Amino acid sequence: EGQLLPSSSPYTLALPDLTNLFIDIKKALSGTSEELEEISCYYVDGQGKVMRPVITVLTARAVNEHVCKHHRLLSSQLEIAKVTEMIHTASLLHDDVLDMADTRRGKPSATQRYGQRKSVMAGNYMLSVALMMLGKLDNPEVTVVLSQVLTDLVQGEFMQLGSKEKEDERFSHYLDKSFKKTASLIANSCQAVAILGGADKMVQQMCYQYGRNVGIAFQLVDDFLDFAASSNVVGKPTAVDLRLGMATAPVLFACEKFPELIPMILRRFSEPGDVEFAMECVHRSDGLQQTKLLATQHCLHAISMLQQLAPSQEKLALIAITDRVINRIK
Ligand code: FPP
Ligand code: MG
Ligand code: MG
């Protein structure tokens, strides 16, 4: 692998495959009422990180190189990249309703701009179009794998609504929730393109585990940024998790030093001063460092999953992406 030039950015390699991604998604969403089209396209604005399609495309090409020594993307694999981005975007339309979010990516949220009812319907519409595209691939295995994502997304949102009484269950509940709400989409998309590329079960599992670990790391960093970043940079308000009653990794780690947090976690930070107290504890503990460390460990695990794949530029880019996941600021 030494003689392969590392690409300057993991995105550069995936870019040629993705130039038409947003145009294609908008096309797929067209042909309905003008308003439904406008709302469902509202977050198809080129402002997202496109992380899911990039990982999907690079995994696909790394698998193709491994399986049949060419790294051309199959058109079915490109469809998965679109479906992935559409499932993600649909879930954001719904999420901003659930979270009562006023802004996203530095602009008014869809729910703020068009109202809750229309946002929900636009999300449903986008999801149904995505599922139609998936169906057209005519591959039952791939359909099952990506349908699992929808079950996981809904279950993840539900898990987020509850607090675990038992201390030893709290962290595993949090990690399981993080897998379901974030990592499942990435893991299963990676597996889907591996299936389409003709990979055997072992390679499929390696791709799945790569996506799973990168996804969990991504969510850990998201939860880190909710405390550490400024809302100007991320384009959405910060410290929202606490305000929504959610204890994420930084708070759960801070508990070790400040057990006074436990009753607050259990009442979901509902009493006056709870949110401020928890923020203070997080910043006075090593909760943020521990969260980053755990994310880093998941990224190292993700990298180790690629070990047996044939050398390729795409494989190097998948490794480089983990660095982005850890060090991103928005
Ligand atoms: C963002 O999390 C939200 C998600 C990753 C998933 C949301 C899932 C649903 C609403 C389930 C139903 C949706 C579909 C399409 C099946 P966040 O609120 O922590 O992040 P944010 O800061 O970006 O809002
Ligand atoms: Mg949200
Ligand atoms: Mg949410």
TrEMBL record:
Cofactor(s) recorded in Swiss-Prot or TrEMBL: Mg(2+)
Superkingdom as given in the UniProt entry: Eukaryota
GO CC field: mitochondrion; transferase complex
Family: Belongs to the FPP/GGPP synthase family.
Gene Ontology biological-process entries: isoprenoid biosynthetic process; pheromone biosynthetic process; ubiquinone biosynthetic process
Coiled coil regions, renumbered to chain: none
Record GO terms (molecular function): metal ion binding; prenyltransferase activity
Protein name: All trans-polyprenyl-diphosphate synthase PDSS1 isoform X1
Whole-protein residues included: 88 to 417 of 417
Keywords: Isoprene biosynthesis, Magnesium, Metal-binding, Transferase
